Amino acid sequence: MSNAPKHLKSGSECPPLKEGQLRLYGMRFCPYVHRAKLVLAAKNIPYEEIHINLTEKPEWYLKKNPPGQVPSLEWIDNQPKETRFIPESLIVSDYLDEAYPQTRLQPTDPYLRAQQRVLIERFSSVVGPFYKILRGDPKEGIESINKGLATYEEALQNTYFGGSKPAMVDYMLWPWFERFPLLKDAGFQFNADGNLPKLAEWVQNMENNESVQKVKVPFDILKKFIDGYIQGKPEYDIE
Amino acid sequence: MSNAPKHLKSGSECPPLKEGQLRLYGMRFCPYVHRAKLVLAAKNIPYEEIHINLTEKPEWYLKKNPPGQVPSLEWIDNQPKETRFIPESLIVSDYLDEAYPQTRLQPTDPYLRAQQRVLIERFSSVVGPFYKILRGDPKEGIESINKGLATYEEALQNTYFGGSKPAMVDYMLWPWFERFPLLKDAGFQFNADGNLPKLAEWVQNMENNESVQKVKVPFDILKKFIDGYIQGKPEYDIE
């Protein structure tokens, strides 16, 4: 019997919110949801997770969040007593960091904060080609992803992008690094020519990080999902 | 003789930075630069502006900022003494708000902050169609822009998006509202069917705002630039 949570889809009903419990709407294999889960783990924030089938989205979810994306947060607030909702991975992550100030993941210095935010925003130079390669356009994609990664090798001036320990920026970039082995069949291997020594060490350190370990999806299950996703038949509830 | 600042281009040299002076790299007609200038005006921050020709970008600017976009900020910091640089309109604007804490434009409450950030991020539902219409695809564009604007009519629950006075979110959205008259020839008129009464009142209030007035580019000059831009021949130094 599987312990994997079922992904709710069209025709389902929204499970009732419990007072005092933070809810994360997610999808088990989504890198953007992965970001929020890393922040929740790093800050030790308790939450329940509701999985959304992104191919046949529940009507009730589209009502809460018309673009239908995950992750999002929902909870019942006390002052005033009302339901609150926040979408978008970066906004969710920054909200969690501000609303739960233990173990701050963002620097308080405005310049450092801005610099790290630039690294997060410009990571599209890696994420864009990642999906190109995944969807079967490896030729242009591999050149672009290596170019994008080279700028991160240059930007890494410390053990972590955030300094001597992982910070928000590290967690926001990590989900795609964990997924690089998915691109192996398409011919991409991270640091294939050894030009990314600092990044390679960072990957090693991140892999050993407690929060990273805690929310990791076993690679063979992720691979099974992605194989279906590429063929246009994503299977959400797999073990 | 013109008072309009010249836009520096390929082959130019970077004017030396002065200690103690904040520099904004901009382009006179760019809505993203407009965002930063609204924040600088609202917070009464002194700065010098260096204009960049975006068609023939100076080599020295591409070195500072490889994507070559404006706005960006630069200044000499004291501790330690080094040159600092921040790109990207939203990151520049948030940095200014945090580094110059007088007249805070962002709410301190994490939930309000997140909500207003969602409004800023999702404004692509208006900005995307704006450029579609401008570039001569009014049919699909007009339907999309009206759909996008309807969600902002619904979101506007107070005089301003930020509450009883203009906040970061208001300034981040404003530049495109000021540019709507540019779409007149393409058949788009803001609030043509009267379905956006709250937004229309917000536009009125924003037009009377001191910071908005201060950084406004006269419409006929903006129009002249845009006419050239649409034809692929933007003329930066016009009066």
From TrEMBL, chains A, B:
Which EC number applies? 1.20.4.2, 1.8.5.1, 2.5.1.18
Q: Which Pfam families match?
A: GST_C_2 (PF13410), GST_N_3 (PF13417)
Catalyzed reactions: L-dehydroascorbate + 2 glutathione = glutathione disulfide + L-ascorbate; RX + glutathione = an S-substituted glutathione + a halide anion + H(+); methylarsonate + 2 glutathione + H(+) = methylarsonous acid + glutathione disulfide + H2O
Classify the source by domain of life.
Eukaryota
GST C-terminal domain boundaries = 109-230
Domain annotation GST N-terminal: ranges: 20-104
One of the record's GO cellular component terms: cytoplasm
Q: Which UniProt keywords apply?
A: Oxidoreductase, Transferase
Q: Could you tell me which InterPro entries the record lists for this protein?
A: Glutathione-S-Trfase_C-like (IPR010987), Glutathione-S-Trfase_C_sf (IPR036282), Glutathione_S-Trfase (IPR040079), Glutathione_S-Trfase_N (IPR004045), GST_omega (IPR005442), GST_Omega/HSP26 (IPR050983), Thioredoxin-like_sf (IPR036249)
- GO MF annotation terms: glutathione dehydrogenase (ascorbate) activity; glutathione transferase activity; methylarsonate reductase activity
**Leader peptide range in chain numbering:** none
Q: Does the keyword Transferase apply?
A: yes
GO BP term, example: glutathione metabolic process
Record's family?
Belongs to the GST superfamily. Omega family.
**PANTHER family for this protein:** GLUTATHIONE S-TRANSFERASE OMEGA, PTHR43968
Task: State the protein's purpose.
Answer: Exhibits glutathione-dependent thiol transferase activity. Has high dehydroascorbate reductase activity and may contribute to the recycling of ascorbic acid. Participates in the biotransformation of inorganic arsenic and reduces monomethylarsonic acid (MMA).
Query: What's this protein's name?
Result: Glutathione S-transferase omega
Q: Which organism is it from?
A: Adineta ricciae (Rotifer)
Biological classification of the source: Eukaryota, Metazoa, Spiralia, Gnathifera, Rotifera
